[in-house]
Structure prediction request, 246 residues.
Amino acid sequence: MSFLRLGVNIDHVATIRNARGGLHPDPVRAAHLAAAAGADGITAHLREDRRHIADRDIERLANEINLPLNFEMAATEEMLAIALRHRPHAACIVPERREERTTEGGLDVAGAKERLRPLVARLTEAGIRVSMFIEADLRQLDACHDIGAPVVELHTGAYCEHGGEDRDRELARIIAAASHAQAIGLECHAGHGLSFDTVKPIAAIASVAELNIGHFLVGEAIFVGFEASIRHMRQLMDEARRGGGG
Ligand SMILES: CC(=O)[C@@H](O)[C@H](O)COP(=O)(O)O
Ligand SMILES: NCC(=O)COP(=O)(O)O
Prediction:
């Protein structure tokens, strides 16, 4: 069974820091703790409104941590310039609306291929591995393949938010999308809203290579500590991979 990487998203360490406008808690310190806890990568989303992660955080993460940095960014010239400046391991292109509380869905790649194609090319030329944050939709997957993106990240928000038959339906969509991604040669990641209660069915999907998880881990850290929160998530992911789905 293939290894499943855990990318820890530290956005909401910065949310707490920004609540008072100071320097504590430091997202880069959180990234070091995540590495010590066994994270395989760090994810950080530099939003246009800088509501949590700041430009200085990205600069320090790029220069100070030894784990691969997955830079989440909107498809804008501003963010492209920042990505080219810091050359993260990966860039995940995500939709953004200033008025949204959090990411509400996947990027409509199929509806913007000619706008996104040059962005993917410029990031790729800089040695940055490009991921597209999309819904579990075969048309979106084919569009990502068409524009040359090597990686997709399937949005798991609807799966996490629903229960019962609706969650089962979302899970089936994600499983089918992950299978299609593998069939057309795309590396498949998944993320958004995952928790201890929801992670195992997603982690059990053999064609998913990476999960990006943040908000829940930061919240759980308030009660058990950041390293323990991450280690628990890692244990659940490993159990799922060994066949302990559920
Ligand atoms: C793309 C995604 O699902 C998250 O990584 C993203 O960072 C969510 O935005 P907030 O972190 O601002 O909630
Ligand atoms: N792309 C998903 C991610 O990085 C983390 O999302 P969340 O766990 O903070 O909802």
Observations:
- The chain is about 50% helix and 15% strand.
- The longest helix spans residues 164-183.
- Strands lie at 5-9, 41-45, 69-73, 90-93, 129-134, 151-155, 187-191, 208-213.
- The mean pLDDT is 97.
